[in-house]
């Protein structure tokens, strides 16, 4: 999506060069018409322009345009919606993807003319254009959604689930933002494909009152002026529909971000949630059956603990296990469920197009107003950073946004993995004081190899045991 928002502006020189290219091909057209020497076989640009000027003011012209536009738009809309829904479902359920694969592959490869002929026999000429458009566009949208979902990083989605952000808010803030660049790129071609398929179906079926019928009649009567005029109309409508739909599609990114941010709930500061206990009883941590570390740790409600092991010894593995994202290889883990945990992971996980305030509000479960989120962030960030997309912030500023988001979430326990990474000494100490100030009696578990964090946070230090080898 960032590529969409950073297009190179068109300079006067670029516009002049493009106009020159158009003028060149108009000249070629004119010379070809003169060489043929017959307006019946090849009308020139002037004759086509005159005929177009005669057609446009008539009611019959707009009725014909409306007939074709309605059916092509309906087929495109149905293909977009169903391609989006089935693409999302197929990414989630592999069995469905395997079931749909032969049919979608067939639709992608089969010649559209063959499909149109079959449709004419089955549904008649009036409906054929909408169905032809659907069948031409659906595979492109479907595969675009699968590609977008496969390429998306799961990190932000994990964090939002752990924080208890509802599914529809996660979709708007994360999934839709990841899909949007793929859909925009696909729809640049799909809009043109829709008009080609729709008009081709009308040409073959010639339903009364359609643009395809008018083009076919012009061909039969050798009215090349009409044929070129209607062709120009098709090209212009295809271009206009593409621009309008892409503008609408891009705008949904901002609308989705705004809609995903919860409003503050009434009476949100009535009764604080009691702190939770966290227990890891003779736990073996690891990935894919490979042990990383062992742990036997009990955190009483409201306690503060800092895991001070060196880098690579399993602290992140422990944090993911406590958050329910990894199952222990052995032992028992007791921790708050998703929605009751406030978390900051080691890697950056932000909605890049959102501002710092919006990122905080997204995970606040309505516990903060916009003003309160602003005030919270102002303790860590300069004023000019608060209203900008986090993609524009420095690494240290982004880290502090994540820290504020974790403390703003009304969980019963707070898990922070290397929360002070990318911070200088002064910012590090200030951020630690921020955590203490806004912990509000909740249980705190911090994974950090930085010296002094146990003292800064007034927490007890703890260490992991080493399994067969560190990680």
UniProtKB/TrEMBL annotation:
<comment type="similarity">
    <text>Belongs to the binding-protein-dependent transport system permease family.</text>
</comment>
<keyword id="KW-0812">Transmembrane</keyword>
<dbReference type="InterPro" id="IPR000515">
    <property type="entry name" value="MetI-like"/>
</dbReference>
<dbReference type="Pfam" id="PF00528">
    <property type="entry name" value="BPD_transp_1"/>
</dbReference>
<feature type="domain" description="ABC transporter">
    <location>
        <begin position="273"/>
        <end position="470"/>
    </location>
</feature>
<keyword id="KW-1133">Transmembrane helix</keyword>
<dbReference type="Pfam" id="PF00005">
    <property type="entry name" value="ABC_tran"/>
</dbReference>
<keyword id="KW-0547">Nucleotide-binding</keyword>
<keyword id="KW-1003">Cell membrane</keyword>
<keyword id="KW-0813">Transport</keyword>
<protein>
    <submittedName>
        <fullName>ATP-binding cassette domain-containing protein</fullName>
    </submittedName>
</protein>
<dbReference type="InterPro" id="IPR027417">
    <property type="entry name" value="P-loop_NTPase"/>
</dbReference>
<dbReference type="GO" id="GO:0005524">
    <property type="term" value="F:ATP binding"/>
</dbReference>
<feature type="domain" description="ABC transmembrane type-1">
    <location>
        <begin position="65"/>
        <end position="245"/>
    </location>
</feature>
<feature type="transmembrane region" description="Helical">
    <location>
        <begin position="60"/>
        <end position="87"/>
    </location>
</feature>
<dbReference type="InterPro" id="IPR003593">
    <property type="entry name" value="AAA+_ATPase"/>
</dbReference>
<dbReference type="InterPro" id="IPR003439">
    <property type="entry name" value="ABC_transporter-like_ATP-bd"/>
</dbReference>
<feature type="transmembrane region" description="Helical">
    <location>
        <begin position="21"/>
        <end position="48"/>
    </location>
</feature>
<feature type="transmembrane region" description="Helical">
    <location>
        <begin position="99"/>
        <end position="122"/>
    </location>
</feature>
<feature type="transmembrane region" description="Helical">
    <location>
        <begin position="220"/>
        <end position="240"/>
    </location>
</feature>
<keyword id="KW-0067">ATP-binding</keyword>
<dbReference type="InterPro" id="IPR035906">
    <property type="entry name" value="MetI-like_sf"/>
</dbReference>
<feature type="transmembrane region" description="Helical">
    <location>
        <begin position="128"/>
        <end position="146"/>
    </location>
</feature>
<dbReference type="InterPro" id="IPR017871">
    <property type="entry name" value="ABC_transporter-like_CS"/>
</dbReference>
<keyword id="KW-0472">Membrane</keyword>
